[in-house]
Amino acid sequence: MAQSNRALVQLIVLEVKGRILKGVAGQYTVDTPKGQYVCNARGLFRKNKISPIVGDWVEINIENSESGQLMAVLPRSNALRRPKVANVDQVLIVLATARPAFSFTMLDRYLMQSEYEGIEAAICINKTDLDAAVAAKVCEIYEKISYKVFSVSVEEGEGLQPVQEYLQDKTTVLAGPSGVGKSSIINWLTGHENMATGIVSEKIGRGKHTTRHAEFIPISLSAYVIDTPGFSSLEPPDIPPLERAELFKEFSPYLGQCKFSDCLHNKEIDCAVKEQVGITIHPSRYERYVEWLSE
Ligand code: GDP
Ligand code: ZN
């Protein structure tokens, strides 16, 4: 009897739902309402063949105060290929007005990548203290084609409140090259949140070496950001030339209206897209589209 009771106790394990914050070498850190647990996936592989990735909602069996077993991966709403993360709501593209130099080509590459992944993107131009004109130019071009643009200066504490609101209740990939101020933004947000809630502020210790893996950073009880270099690849997505125009969202009302059904909107005559250049399509956006075609 005592024997079977002990067996029963072992069977009563605590199963909770959580989210994978990071995964390194088969060890997954899972954030749950009861705390964080490092889990392996042995239990999972017995059941199905899904490989868990960062951002997955999962069920775990808690084994002790620090570790557990991944038991199930819950259905994903989406999964990015690069970086490999699941259940992403939006992308915030962060660029600086200067240091490093601003580049429209870079901005468009990030936007194309987001459109390709089918995830809503917004633009955050940091370091407005260095060159406010760049931010104004970005607003002028991109707000017209319905991208949200945030102009901020972490240095001066300007413009960050709307960014915080944008991130609330969402899982956001922060994209952008290094040096533009992504960590500064995250630190501002966590510090701010903590000030508001009375928690002692703790800076995100984000060594450069840690950024090779996509990693979730909980910035409040209901917002996560993923700081990742994986998305910062400047290679445009590898897609056939005929489909490229679809990634420029202001072209979309005119696609299918050209004389030729296989129009690349480049040298063809009677092109509905080209007719809009200088009207609803900004000439510089069109130029960058043509540049991409020639690659
Ligand atoms: P990350 O590599 O994108 O995470 O960029 P960091 O947050 O590490 O910032 C890179 C550098 O830019 C640091 O020296 C920051 O102090 C500086 N920086 C961040 N925000 C601003 C800003 O608004 N204005 C200026 N002038 N410098 C900033
Ligand atoms: Zn055309």
Structure commentary:
The protein is of the alpha/beta class and 295 residues long. It has three domains: 2-73, Nucleic acid-binding proteins (OB fold (Dihydrolipoamide Acetyltransferase, E2P), Beta Barrel), CATH 2.40.50; 90-227, P-loop containing nucleotide triphosphate hydrolases (Rossmann fold, 3-Layer(aba) Sandwich), CATH 3.40.50.300; 241-293. It has helices spanning 2-11, 42-47, 104-117, 132-142, 160-167, 182-197, 241-244, 283-293; strands at residues 14-24, 27-32, 35-40, 57-62, 67-73, 79-80, 85-86, 90-96, 120-126, 149-151, 171-175, 215-220, 223-227. Helix 4 links the parallel strand 9 and strand 10 (149-151). It is globular and about 80 Å long. Zinc ion (ZN) binds next to loops.
Tell me briefly what this model is.
The chain is α/β, with parallel strands linked by helices. The protein has eight helices and 13 strands.
Which regions contain 5 or more consecutive residues with pLDDT less than 50?
195-211
Tell me the distance between the termini.
74 Å
CATH architecture call of the largest domain? 3-Layer(aba) Sandwich
Structural class: alpha/beta
Q: What's the total number of strands?
A: 13
The CATH class of the largest domain = Alpha Beta
